[in-house]
């Protein structure tokens, strides 16, 4: 019997994203691989999603990412409006075997309230779950809602209550063939990430300025793709772009460090993104938090580009120190490793992705595709449980 998975991507960005989009990039890769394996995929996301699926159910015409970092009381309705669409689809459709959820907190919080006639749920955790101790510390999946971590470090840091409901760890993966391998790395250094305090753009900019090394910061600021759109959105009252925490971070801690060979180039996508990744002398990840997944790390390695970052979160699971990059325990160490990026063999970087972090491996271990031998032969198959 052919498996049907409802993938809940959330309302923030299309799948695949036009430029920035961590979770949505993962889903674009995973969905394509699942469908190659014969899995039917119903995608609940936004209407501008272009990935080929068996059915697209849209909650909004386009992504709502620009609101993601706004004050909670201004944006709380977006995720719940999206979940109304998801629940309506589950009530309408009789062909869903399992829901694979990717919407932080609101996804399992809503889906767990549905009755036993609805499909079981697996949520992949793409974030630091410690920021939601009251939810994940108390949540009871009642044998119908389960979780998958994306790194061992993420599972280690999770509340004990959540760890008991984790089916396992499924490292993220990328399609190596989709990333151009390049041995020669003419530079500059590159940091490809959403601009926010957790990612640490201020550290990368400060270190590169101090060492007089060229650096490109690529990524949106609170959903704004470039300086022009950011300026146009600021209404001067503090309630526009300037009232956003990520915008404040950019303006107060990153922008003063820009100039000369240290530049913010906004969001990049498509061919330009791949060119920057493959040409970079090193990809920088001075994470200020326990980064759970690290898709951008794998994308850099797939291009043969070494990684220099902090020894935090998933990075020690993805980067072999001295072989595919360098991991630092302080800003001083981080600065010392940047000039040594040329010591890393690009072929070793590419090889680790092909052998350990490919999309095929991710899809092959994805918990949402596990079949249950107790599946009935027809009709709504929600009585099935995900095996623990």
Question: What secondary-structure arrangement, pairings included, does this model have?
Answer:
Elements: E1 4-8, H1 22-36, E2 40-46, E3 55-60, H2 72-92, E4 98-101, H3 106-111, E5 121-124, H4 133-136, E6 145-149, H5 152-157, H6 160-163, E7 166-169, E8 189-192, H7 201-211, E9 215-218, H8 227-233, H9 245-254, E10 262-266, H10 270-279, E11 283-285, H11 295-302, E12 307-310, H12 315-318, E13 325-328, H13 331-337, H14 346-356, H15 359-365
Parallel strand pairs: 1-2, 1-4, 2-3, 4-5, 5-6, 6-7, 8-9, 9-10, 11-12, 12-13
Helix pairs in contact: 1-15, 11-14
In short:
With 388 residues, the protein is α/β, with parallel strands linked by helices. The protein has helices spanning 22-36, 72-92, 106-111, 133-136, 152-157, 160-163, 201-211, 227-233, 245-254, 270-279, 295-302, 315-318, 331-337, 346-356, 359-365; strands at 4-8, 40-46, 55-60, 98-101, 121-124, 145-149, 166-169, 189-192, 215-218, 262-266, 283-285, 307-310, 325-328.
Structural description of this entry:
By secondary structure, this protein is an alpha/beta fold. The protein folds into 2 domains: 4-172 and 360-369, Rossmann fold (3-Layer(aba) Sandwich); 176-357, Glycogen Phosphorylase B (Rossmann fold), CATH 3.40.50. It is built from 15 helices and 13 strands. The strands form 3 sheets. It has a 7-stranded parallel sheet, with helices on both faces. It has a 3-stranded parallel sheet with strand order 8-9-10, with helices on one face. A 3-stranded parallel sheet has the order 11-12-13. Helix 11 packs across helix 14 (346-356). The longest helix is centred in the N-terminal third of the chain and has 21 residues, at 72-92. It is globular. The relative contact order is 0.14. Mean pLDDT is 91; it is low at 371-388. This is Putative glycosyltransferase. Keywords: Glycosyltransferase, Transferase. Residues 20-175 form the Glycosyltransferase subfamily 4-like N-terminal domain.
């Amino acid at each position: 019997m052919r498996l049907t998975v409802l993938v809940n991507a959330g309302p923030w960005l299309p799948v695949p994203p036009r430029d920035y989009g961590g979770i949505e990039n993962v889903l674009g890769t995973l969905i394509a691989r699942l469908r190659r394996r014969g899995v039917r995929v119903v995608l609940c996301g936004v209407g501008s999603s272009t990935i080929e699926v068996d059915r697209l159910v849209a909650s909004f015409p386009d992504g709502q990412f620009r609101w993601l970092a706004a004050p909670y009381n201004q944006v709380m309705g977006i995720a719940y409006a999206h979940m109304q669409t998801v629940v309506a689809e589950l009530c309408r459709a009789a062909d869903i075997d399992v829901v694979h959820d990717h919407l932080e907190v609101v996804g399992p919080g809503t889906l767990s309230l549905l009755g036993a006639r609805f499909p079981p749920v697996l949520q992949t955790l793409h974030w630091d779950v410690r920021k939601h101790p009251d939810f994940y510390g108390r949540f009871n999946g009642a044998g119908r809602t389960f979780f998958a971590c994306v790194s061992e470090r993420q599972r280690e840091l999770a509340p004990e209550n959540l760890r008991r409901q984790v089916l396992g760890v499924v490292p993220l993966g990328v399609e190596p063939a989709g990333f151009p391998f390049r041995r020669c790395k003419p530079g500059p250094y590159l940091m490809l990430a959403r601009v926010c305090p957790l990612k640490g753009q201020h550290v990368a900019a400060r270190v590169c300025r101090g060492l007089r090394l060229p650096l490109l910061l690529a990524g949106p600021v609170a959903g704004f793709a470039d300086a022009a759109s950011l300026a146009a959105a600021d209404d001067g009252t503090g309630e526009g772009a300037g009232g956003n925490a990520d915008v404040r971070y950019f303006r107060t801690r990153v922008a003063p460090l820009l100039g000369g060979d240290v530049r913010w180039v906004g969001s990049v996508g498509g061919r330009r993104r791949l060119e920057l990744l493959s040409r970079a002398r090193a990809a920088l990840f001075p994470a200020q938090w326990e980064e759970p997944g690290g898709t951008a790390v794998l994308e850099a390695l797939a291009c043969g580009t070494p990684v220099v970052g902090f020894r935090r979160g998933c990075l020690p699971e993805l980067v072999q120190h001295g072989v595919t990059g360098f991991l630092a325990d302080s800003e001083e160490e981080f600065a010392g490793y940047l000039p040594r990026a040329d010591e890393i063999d690009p072929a070793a970087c590419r090889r680790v992705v092909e052998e350990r972090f490919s999309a095929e491996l991710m899809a092959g271990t994805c918990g949402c595709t596990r079949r249950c031998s107790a599946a009935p032969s027809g009709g709504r198959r929600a009585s099935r449980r995900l095996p623990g």
